[in-house]
TrEMBL record:
Family statement: Belongs to the glycosyl hydrolase 30 family.
Alphabetized SUPFAM superfamilies for the sequence: (Trans)glycosidases (SSF51445)
Protein name: Glucosylceramidase
Cleaved signal peptide residues: 1-19
Coiled-coil residue windows: none
Domain Glycosyl hydrolase family 30 beta sandwich: 406-456
A Pfam family of this chain: Glyco_hydro_30C
GO cellular component: membrane
Domain of life (superkingdom): Eukaryota
InterPro entries documented for this protein: GH, GH30_C, Glyco_hydro_30, Glyco_hydro_30_TIM-barrel, Glyco_hydro_b
The UniProt record lists the keyword Hydrolase: yes
Residues of the Glycosyl hydrolase family 30 TIM-barrel domain: 64-215
GO terms for biological process, alphabetical: glucosylceramide catabolic process
Origin species: Triparma columacea
Amino acid sequence: MKLIHALIITTFGCSVSRAVTTATPKECFATTEDRIKNLQPCSTTTDSQETWTLNLDCEPLQAIDGFGAAWTDATTFLFDQLSESDQDKLMTDLFTTKGIGMEFMRMTIGQSDLTPDSRWSFDENDGLPDKDLSNWSLTEQGERMRKWILRMGDYNPDILLLGSQWSPPGWMKQNNNLRWEFRDSYVQYFVNFLQAYITVGIELDAITLQNEPLHTAPLSGEAWTMFMDSEYAAILSNATFEAIRREGLSTKIWAYDHNTDHPEYPQYVMDNSPSVDTVAWHCYGGGFSPLKDFAAANPGVKQYMTECWLHETSGEGFFDLPQFIMRPIQNGASGSLAWTLAGSVDLDVSYPGGCEQCTGIVQVNQKVADYELTGDYYKLGQFSKFVRKGARYLHVDGDYVWDDGTGVESAAFVNTDGSTVIVIMNKFQDDLTVTLGGVDGGDVVGVVQGRSVTTWLL
């Protein structure tokens, strides 16, 4: 589900000389912690006496492919319970610029820990080996996912789509590891899946062979996990890539799909799999700076933050989501994803032992077949609505966060049409008068509300 974008960098309002005039942002949109504003127009003038200075770096850095969230069985199960009109409105809100215009999405391949149904795969076969995959089937759950992915394309056909597997069929595993005698079956399992999508006109842009391959789960998690060391991952990446290409498909293999505290894992995969040039990271350990280090060691590598969870009902902070969108980008990522797209207000759609506390950017009330757009929806939209695919990231000097969590963080982008976007997190209680230097034609000066995520369009 992608088109190739030419990176057209035009004059975008960036200057290396100090400006002598000032202007206000062309447009301003904000989401505030008190929920008074939810991605709504904001004033840039006030009597604020508190000041902050940022400076735009003119050098365009990595291309941005988008921001978004993850489709799961829970998501499709919940969306199916909404009326047709609500479904249409919701998809418009999610995937068009009338809403937040997400352009990068992840989908689960088979079961995950956010599967409300019984244990399943595309070839569970009552636990009996099926080496030739003669009983492979998309299944009811798989058909439901494909239906919604196809429908997403009706609203935006140019979404970067990543598929991630949590576990192959149970009979392929022993002690939660792949039984090596079934490695060819494992590879063909992916080929069958990709072909099932091609039949309806969907070609996934990329897959990861194993979500969180270093994750060790309790017995209750064996249905939705599998351990895979880097040596197996490299061998299987090569084999799967070759099998996919023999079928005439262009889907890529991305490495890893786990935390940044073990960069040696994707490094080994890339060193031993010439076809792999992209890394998927998660944010649950290791911080974000390893992305910058990894890029320095591997020029030309593409990186994405493919999972950070949402827990709006169990202590999530207001700045958690904008931080895990912004900080990977500051360290070289080309996109960031939230886990997950939709949850239940009753927190009752996870597999036993799975992520019971996970919420989504959309929360569905099954009792009344209704939904709400959460604060995370609007905070994600501060990026995804305005930063379009093909934009380039611009570094901003002047960020600082104190030990108590107060401070300012920012990221700027230049879209392919030359427009410039800057997203600013003001973590102070008070409003700030922010001066943005380095802008062609004069400094840009405006007020950023306290405890807000604010987007300026220049």
